[in-house]
Every structure is written in structure tokens, then in C-alpha cells.
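Q: What does the assembly look like in three dimensions?
Context provided by user:
Components: three
Sequences:
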Amino acid sequence: MSITEGGPLERAGKVNFGGITKEVNLAYVPEAKVGDYVIVHVGFAISIVDAEEAARVFEYLKEMNELEELA
Amino acid sequence: MDKTKNKIDLTLSCPRPLEPGDRVLLAHGGGGKLMNSLIETVFRPAFSNPILNQNHDSSVMTVNGVRLAFTTDSYVVHPPFFPGGDIGDLAVNGTVNDLSMSGSRPLYLSAGFILEEGFPMESLKRVVQSMSRAAAVAKVQFVTGDTKVVDKGKGDGIFINTAGIGVIEHALTIGPKSVQPGDVLLVNGDLGRHGIAVMAVREGLEFQTTIESDTAPLSTLVQDLLSNGIRAHCLRDLTRGGLASALNEIAESARVTIAIDESQIPVREDVRGACEILGFDPLYVANEGRLVAFVDKDDAERALALMNQNPHGAGSAVIGSVTKETGPLVTMKNRIGVSRIVDMLSGEQLPRIC
Amino acid sequence: MKYLDEYRDEKGVRQLVQELHRITTKPWTIMEICGGQTHSIVKYGLDELIPKNLTLVHGPGCPVCVTPLELIDKAVQIASRPEVIFCSFGDMLRVPGSKYDLFAVKARGGDVRIVYSPMDAVKVAEQNPMKQVVFFAVGFETTAPANAMAAYQARERGLDNFSILVSHVLVPPAMEALLSSPDNKVQGFLAAGHVCTVMGFTEYVPIARKYKVPIVVTGFEPLDIIQGILMCVKQLEEGRFEVENQYARSVREKGNVPAQELIRQVFQVVPRRWRGLGEIPQSGLGLRAEFKELDAERRFGLADFSVEEPAECMAGAVLRGVKKPRECAAFGTRCTPERPLGAPMVSSEGACAAYFRYKGVEAKKHG
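A: Here is the predicted structure of the complete assembly.
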């Protein structure tokens, strides 16, 4: 994601979706910075993806696997 | 009806059915079910004959012992210039490909231009140059043509119609009716690029991409298969409505069940990204240089190798097979291993709200 | 693509499905609120992977499906005016009004345009100062920040040729209406991840307590949905009824505060009629007095009218989760995506369209 600064409500960024880019309004994610992953809805970023939370389910799956191996 | 009204009004509400179409809608040209119904209720009753009823991209007829393929197509793409090509490339490749789908070698084309008053001469020259180049690549000649100009506001800059004739130099009957259980399905590369490339430059949906249209003539690829003795039972180019619509049409004509595997269908990452944004399914997105080939299962491996060697077949893949003599049905094993029905598109795909 | 592909992984999904089978001992009925989730469930066939005694009912969370008929008729009226450019999200164009849909308006010469974002409609207004540009602002809380911004920016920029036709709806009041309805069967909810991304999930806590239903804020990918179901069933089996957050990578407890602030500046809570559910108090958003001049209904002097909706189809029962699409006599016969009787057959998020597309008509009787 790259960011073009404007007024606080016109803050926009270029968001990359698997190789294609679309300009997205960043007014609602003022703390977003270049490199962040964002959730986009009808042209607006509505949240920044939390990498730690995102990894949680995979840790859970891994633990399940390890438990199975012990069993 | 519910008698127990409590906090919410439990009246079942729903709209009345709409009057059956009294006007032509855009979706009537969208390659989906509505267009089929237009053909079956308006065109076929008026024109029906055995050649037309072959229901293929190009019709095959025998004239003095020579088997010829004949087809026509109109090109109204907007905007006329898009990443990877223009309306001129499409007008040649589209018709060449329709001819190729009956296994013919394309020979001659006609060109009809409908131009809107005020269309830039420079743009027209560019389109014509593209047509000339594409014709040279596909080894076809324009042998007749026509030009009409309509008042400003009565056209969309430029419309082109091309018709084409090809000659058939093999003994196979290529078409849905020849499809058999066991046939293997191959595509000649990644899907969905043309539709996304055009969509990307349309007003209102602007996004930036390096995706270029896949527009290409498929005549040499088809000739490579046939001249090497591949028993191709059916060939279909994957234009409007994409792979899903093509397979549904073939399943319908051949009365078979087709099963494909999502994980084997090549789709580029950037095309998938664009589809995520727009809420599209790449299986329904248009291509202009892609085909699906139904080949005898014993020839599949050789066909794949031959296709991969052709410049327009790098990235070819086996995507499924004909599984049953009953149908019509198209199913797809999805990414998480569950089989689902792949339906035909109703109209054009619409960008959805979330 | 990162954060998408790994959530569509067969192995992970299978593993959670196995766990779900292990912990499920009783029959349970769970509703996924959001149409996006319904689409994923049916597209990926998740309903066929879960234990047989779990029933998923598809909630009213498809903005296209719940927009009331009279509003479609109003949209058709406005879009038919020669001075108007009518902008809408794509899938609203096929929703049948009492006589026409917006596609038919286009076929009759109306200037109807599909936009990706409400801000694109603002742009159209700037580029066409001689035209009246109207945006059809439908949607749940997820779309409200974007629509609020469009209204706010149009006013800031002094665009006097821009207005919006508003049909915004809110999830929690609809959930309460469903739960207090006498034929309610829903025992647990998957709340909509993107709605909660905007609004947070504190407003669900009293609902979970009052009606003793577990509510799990859930994402949209197969792995998310199966995990959401798993968390919900776990609560049901253990007799708990809490609000849990499966979609924590996007949803924070308080939601997106700047977005909520702008929504509150532009919109106020109003009663709203839902297609299939009827009028629900405090269940929608309408423009605040300060933004009244942007109200398209006012600008074009549309009188309030209500349209009688004949009961041929059972969209209402489908939207309340009382009936499955295939239990409808019209499903796949008199009602298809080409000629929809009811809105759930229109949008790809609508339960009927999703069933039609991915499950076909054949097995209808067994649905």
C-alpha cells in the first residue's frame, strides 16, 4: 500500500490486490502506514489486518495436530 | 399466512413477477441464459434449418464435396482500445477463433464498419492497422467489406462486423454431439484476462493493473492438434460468459455431465485480485484467446504437450473430464474438496455490494 | 493473496470440521446474519461438511434482499427522469420493483450507472454539473461509512446536483426482531464480520444475555466460517451465551471509531421497513436534518407511498430463516435469477440465488 496525503478526509492510498492496484480512501484508518494490509469495502479501508490475530487460528490448528500426534 | 403477529409484521412480502421482456435488455446480448432464450424464442423459429441447428461457433456445410466452415460476429467493445489490444484485434481473432472451433483452417474474412460521425480518423487508422496485423498472423485475407456512418449520438464510435470462411481438411466431426464420457478437458492457458483488462479501463470501476487482454488467434493451435492426429471431439472458445457458460452449453447440447477441478484451472493472481474486488467469479469472465478442448482420453497427454509447444498455448492444463452419459450438468470440485454445481450465468456479472 | 488463500485451505477446513463433528452432541440451529457468509457457505459447500444435526439458516443480511419494494419503485421513478444520472451498486439493478427494475429503466433510455464506491457517484456529480446525480445508498453498517463520507463530501464541496436515496439498515434491531418472533428457531448467531469491523460488538452483549444466545463475530472465508460455527456450537454445548470474536484480525471491540463518528454526523437512527420482515423500529439510518437537502426523496418531491406485496413467494420466511429456499414452490420454476420473484433470488448474496447457483433445482424436494 502506498499513501497520498490530502486533507484528513481525503487521505487515500493505493492498495494492491494480488497485483492489481486500486485507490482506496483511508480516512477511517488514520494510523495506516505503507505495507499494512487493510480490509476494503466499497472503496474505503475499514480496518487494518492484525497479523498476530490472523495467525491465531493456524497456531490452534498446529496445536491440534501436535495433540493428535501425541495421542 | 402467520396468524401470530408479534413484534414484527410477519406478512410474507414479495414482488409480483415482471412482465416477460417487452424490450431488449443488455443481458440479452450477454452470452447467458437470457441470450439463449432470445435465440430460441425469436431467432431459431424464424431461421431454423439443419445447418443452423448444429449450434456451434461456426457452421459446417458441404459445397461440391468440399467441407466449409462459415461464421459471423459483431464487435462492440467499449472502450475500443484496452490494455493488450483493441477492437480491431478482436474483430479478426474472434472470427478466426469461431472458424477454428469447427477444426477448419480460416481463409477469408469480410469486414463491415459502422462508424459514428466524429470518430477520430487517427483511431480508425489504428484499428485498421491492428486488423491488418492480426490477419497476417492468422494467415487470413479480407476479401470484401462495407462502411456505414451514423449520426453523432447514434453509435458508440465504432462497431465492426466480420464474417469468415474456412476449409475443413480432416474427417472428424467436431462439436458438442461428438462429446463422450471419458473425454478429457484442456484449456490453453490462464483464464479471465480479457474481461478484466476491459473492465479496468471502464468508467466508474477504475483500477490500475498490468493485466493485458489475452486476445490471440487460435487457428495454429487447433491445426497443431488436428494435423498430429489428436481426436478432438469438441472445441469451444471461451468468450462471453467464460469457461462456465461454454461448459454449460456443451453439457446441454451433448447431454453429459462434466466435472472440473478448481485447483487445476489456471487463473493469474492479479486476475483473482480483480475478481475479489468486483465480486466476480473468474470462471464467468470473458477471454479472447482461450479455448476448451474435449479430446479422447488416450490422446490427452499428447494434446497437452502439443498445446504447450504452441505460442498461444503456454500454460495449457487439463482441467477435468466428461464423467457421465447423463446430464446436462457441470460440477466443480472446489478448493476445499467439495463438489458444487457450476451454473450458467443469467446475465452479465454485476459488481456486487460486499 | 495473503489473508485469503490460507483461509481457503482444504486441510485446515477439514481439521476444524473434524473437531466440529467431535464436539456436536445435540441438534442446533445457527443463523449466519450476513449474505456474504451465506454465499461462502453455499459456494464452498460448507453446509455439506458440518454435522447433520446442525442446521444453518440464512439471515436477512443481504442489503439487496431487504430493500423494500417501495424504495425500488422510488429509485425507478427517479432514474426515469431525463435530468437524472442514477448511480448504484451493480446488483441493485436487477431487483424487481412492482413494475420495472433499474435495468428496464436503462433499456428505456434512463442514465443508470454502476459504481464501485459512493465516492465515484460524487465524482460523476462533479463532472456533470448540468445533471442531477442520485446515489442509491443501500446497505448495512458496513457501507454506512462510505455513504456518510459521500454525503459529507458533497456538502463540503457545495455540490448542489448530488443527492442520495437512503435505505440503510442496522443488524442488531433485526436480530432482536427475529429472536422475539414466535416462530423463531435460531439458537445461536454468526454475526457479520464487516458490520462489526465498523461498529464493534458491544451492542451484541445485551442481546446475547437477554435472549440467551451465543453470538460469534465471524469472517467470510471457509476457515473463518467453520471456526465461527465451531465456537458457537461449543458455547451451545456448554450452555454459555457470550459474544465471542472469531474475526479478531479485523474486528476490534469498539469497532472503527472515526467511521462511527462520521456516520453519526450524517445519519440518525430511524424506523425502517425491511422487505420480507416488515417495519422494525429503530432499525435503519436516515439523513440528519443538517443533510436533508441531500435527500433525494425530498428533492424530487416523492410522496410516501406503500406498495402492496403479494405473497406469491416466501422471501419473508427465507429471510427470517424459517424456511429454506427449496421449500418454496416457485423456486427454480417461476422464480429464477433471470426472472426473480423475490429479491433473495437476485443478488449473489441472496439465499435463493446462492442455492440456485450452487445446488441446482434438481434436489429441490430434499432441501
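Follow-up: Confidence is low (pLDDT under 50) at residues 363-367 of chain C.
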